[in-house]
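User: I'm writing a tutorial on reading structure tokens. Could you give me a worked example: one chain, its sequence, then its tokens, then a sentence or two explaining what the tokens reveal?
Assistant: Sure. Here is the example chain.
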Amino acid sequence: MTVLLVMAKAPVPGAVKTRLCPPATPGQAARIAAAALRDTLDAVRAVPGVTPVLAVSGRLADGEDGAGLTAALTGWTVLPQRGRDLADRIANAHADVAAAWPGQPVLQIGMDTPQVTAGHLLAAFQRLDLADAVLGRAVDGGWWALGLRDPRQADALRAVPMSTPETGECTWSALDRRGLRTLTLPVLRDADTWPDALAVAAEAPDTRFAYQISALHPTLVPGGHR
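And here are its predicted structure tokens:
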């Protein structure tokens, strides 16, 4: 059984989606982040036969929609993130999953692509069956998904600079240096900046994320305020 790992940050005002401020306030940005996470959890829940795991930084109860997120995680394994930076936290989360579910492949996503569907995830699993790893690049040069037949190989990411325009290419190179055969996934857009958030909301207008975006600017999102 494949482990589907979501890396997330508790949607605490001032700690998430800060690049959306302005025009959003810290509270609005946190509600947008919470909605994006709920959409991501929904997509994972729609995938049959996987073990869902959330690796979280911070306390969900301290953030926006804490009760809703906690309820949505019924049946999930929730692990604390650990490490000095994002690269360490990603590698450690994969190591924790490898220890808890030995021999199981892992597909990891984050909470910045609320347009992700169960179809995206199922297609990623199919690609992973054909390779040692899969990598889904993001429009901004990062990546939105990483799949590993052996999650211990995520240790290669510790030296990869995260949150830069070169992160995707550096990750690919790190996997290649390990001798891993890596296949690509579709390129998606992270909802990190306001223009990107508008584009993602337009792409997935029926999501909670789009609802929160349209609450700020109803005329800018097709479908408007639901």
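What the tokens reveal: The mean pLDDT is 94. The radius of gyration is 17 Å.
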